[in-house]
Amino acid sequence: MAYLVKQKIRGHTYVYEAENFWDPEKKQSRQKRRYLGVWDEATGQIIPKTAERDVKTTKSFGPAYLLDSIGSEFELRKKLSNSFGKDGDLILTIAMSKLLHQTSLKNLRHVVEDSFLPEMYSLKESFSSQWLSNFLERLSAKEAAMTSFYSSIVAGEDETLIFDITSLSSASRNIDWLEWGYNRDGLDLPQVNLGLVLSLNNHLPLYFKLFPGSISDVTTLKNLVAEVKSFGITKSLFILDRGFYSESNIKEMAAEKIDFILPLPFSVNIGKGLISETNRDIENPANAMRFAGDIFYVLESEIQIGEVNAYGYVLFNKKREGKEINSFYNRLIDIESALNGKEFNNPLGQFKLIAGNFERYFECNVDGKTIQLRRRVNAISQAVNRFGKTILISATKRKWVEVLSLYRERDEVEKRFDDLKNELEVMPLRVKKIETLQGLLFIFFISLILRAILLQRAREAELLDKKSIEDILMELAKLRAVKVGGKWRLTEISKKQRTILEKMKIGIPIEANLVIKKSGA
């Protein structure tokens, strides 16, 4: 007959079902037990055990823990909560989810549901596509909260900032701000323009502004200057791309006292003149300088662009020249091999198709269906003379090394825009309302901040030599939280996961429940 046995261990009373039986081999009475649970003294009841088969939920824990840890160092959650109240945790959760998986708003709910983020921030929302659309539209109306947040992250940034502009395209007919304009991605679609502000001190995105697609670049720059001045920024610098150059743009920036650095196109007369003037003297040993381990030959001069005085810097790097010459002539010879002496039904059409923008370097003669190519020596020489060279112009006189260093910093902005358009899947825009778009871009802006911090930390930890950010997140995604008997428990941390966290100087998590925060706190 079965009966109950209580056993007290370390202050807890455990209850077992016991039953006696005769062991014929040992010729004695023995007892077998089955564990039932813990005895609750207050109620006089057994609290049943929870078996592994009773597990209700399992969630991805590692990436959520990593992003929350690095965001805390920047006080990102605190700043969002101070500005947006309880919505701050929702913004952070959606932004983190966009980093964890590239997916549409419609499918974002599945990413959130698999992540420990809702538990970490004590969230109860559904994150359905309809809920997200409503939330983003509501978020776009919180202009005062956004201004407060921008002010909190711009605080202390009173030195140089990088500005840049890009185009975001869409086929939607419901976004009023979509207009035709100069499209930097070469897409035949209407667009909105996005201005992004980046700190030169820590390379983090600080501010963004959305503009109608037809507004000119200089007008956008003026608006951005006015916006950041309201946050207390007294000194700003625009580092722009080659496509921004025109005499009218330079004149307008000078009139507005906008400081800038941009590359001068070789195709304009001033660019051609500087290359021609410096070709003879550029390799003078007196002009050899070193930058980041590479040798540059440098010539500086004052230049006149219309009515504006500026400063030009011709920089020549022989290592880059060698690579460009090798690539150029390989392409030239490949075209000749594919076309020269060959017969085609449409020889001129085939020449244009294969030669592409190298068409200018050949004379193409057609004899019946046969193509005969001859190199345009002067055109090739002019191209080769530019290899290894860059012309940078600056609104104010600076040392060449500062100009080159600042221009290279622009790569950070390009990387952030690349993140925005590709890895975070903003392009092409899929939303239907300008209000939803503004809310969505603010979410992406928070994602950019998190990704920039994560990149910095991973680079400092020397993890990016063999791993990408996506590899790191995927490895940590294997660390899961399992809900057993109402309590979250972590799966075993692997050696790879431990190494990632230790190298990034992030504490190893002990219990999942310890990272759960009060909503909005």
Key phrases:
521 residues, alpha+beta, nine-stranded mixed beta sheet, four-stranded antiparallel beta sheet, 17 helices, 40% helix, elongated
Summarize this entry quickly:
The protein is an alpha+beta fold and 521 residues long. The chain has helices spanning 62-73, 76-84, 87-100, 108-114, 117-120, 129-140, 143-154, 217-229, 247-255, 269-278, 318-339, 347-355, 377-386, 400-423, 434-460, 469-476, 495-503; strands spanning 2-9, 12-23, 28-40, 45-48, 57-60, 161-169, 191-199, 205-212, 237-239, 260-263, 288-291, 294-305, 308-316, 362-367, 370-375, 389-394, 480-484, 487-490.
SSE layout:
Layout: E1 2-9, E2 12-23, E3 28-40, E4 45-48, E5 57-60, H1 62-73, H2 76-84, H3 87-100, H4 108-114, H5 117-120, H6 129-140, H7 143-154, E6 161-169, E7 191-199, E8 205-212, H8 217-229, E9 237-239, H9 247-255, E10 260-263, H10 269-278, E11 288-291, E12 294-305, E13 308-316, H11 318-339, H12 347-355, E14 362-367, E15 370-375, H13 377-386, E16 389-394, H14 400-423, H15 434-460, H16 469-476, E17 480-484, E18 487-490, H17 495-503
Parallel strand pairs: 6-9, 9-10
Antiparallel strand pairs: 1-2, 2-3, 3-4, 5-17, 6-7, 7-8, 10-16, 11-12, 12-13, 13-16, 14-15, 17-18
Helix pairs in contact: 2-3, 2-7, 3-15, 6-15
